[in-house]
Amino acid sequence: MQSFSYAKALLQHWGIAVEDIPTSDAEEKQEADFLASFGDIRVLIEEKTKEDDLTYLAKRAEELERGEIHAITLPISRNETHSGLVRDASHQLRSSLNRLHDFRLMWFTATGVHAEGKYEQFMATLYGRTNILEMNASHYRRCYYFRNADFFRRAGAIDGAIVAHTDGKSISAKLCLNSLSPRYEALRCSAVLKPFGTAIEDPAALEAEGTAFILDCALDRKNEGPLLVYLQEKYRTEPLMKFDLGYTNASILLPKK
């Protein structure tokens, strides 16, 4: 378990009881981190944190010390490093299925100078998310499961994810529901949602509002043309175009007064 748990700190701040899960056998089987009790609902949680790479931080510091502007752009799309964290979390949650529980969640916290960008990347990885623009429309809609999505791959093991990022001494968190989980309907009606208020990502609810698309077919996600045609026919739209946004950050070191 990590030396500091953002998950435990926030859950306990909300008054939610948290019970650590110790290693259960001589082989040091990797289990979920803890059980959280939302009233009578018990939730298995595996926590992961993505911090800044120390080599990158050293290079950034050198550039800033030379008086240069340090800029970085992160694509807000599927990320294989994040996908590896989801894979590991799913294995650890499965290792703890003998614990009495109702739901299984992963908790991901992005920290560091580009925490918000990593936060957006992680949600794009979970949902295979992109953005769709309709011809002659003035706005775009998000599309869920357009790419290979870890919520699809791990639907049997992960019912959702709490995705958080730090900003100085504060932390923001959102509950992302896995609409492909067999326990999705039960989770969306449970007490687990209450502490998050409106900070909930629910593809089915967004689709019902008309603000999102869901790509619910077995077409190859590597061939975008047929995917766009499918969406156009499903939602009876004008021709569609896919595009991704990015996260850009620029820093400069100011002289001390």
Structure description:
- It is a single chain.
- The protein is an alpha/beta fold and 257 residues long.
- Helix content is 30%, strand content 29%.
- The chain has helices spanning 6-13, 54-65, 80-94, 115-127, 150-153, 184-188, 203-209, 224-235, and strands at residues 17-20, 34-38, 41-50, 70-75, 103-110, 130-134, 140-144, 160-167, 170-177, 200-201, 212-214, 240-243, 246-251.
- Helix 3 packs across helix 4 (115-127).
- The longest helix is centred in the middle third of the chain and has 15 residues, at 80-94.
- The protein starts with 5 loop residues before the first helix and ends in a 6-residue tail after the last strand.
- The relative contact order is 0.16.
- The mean pLDDT is 92.
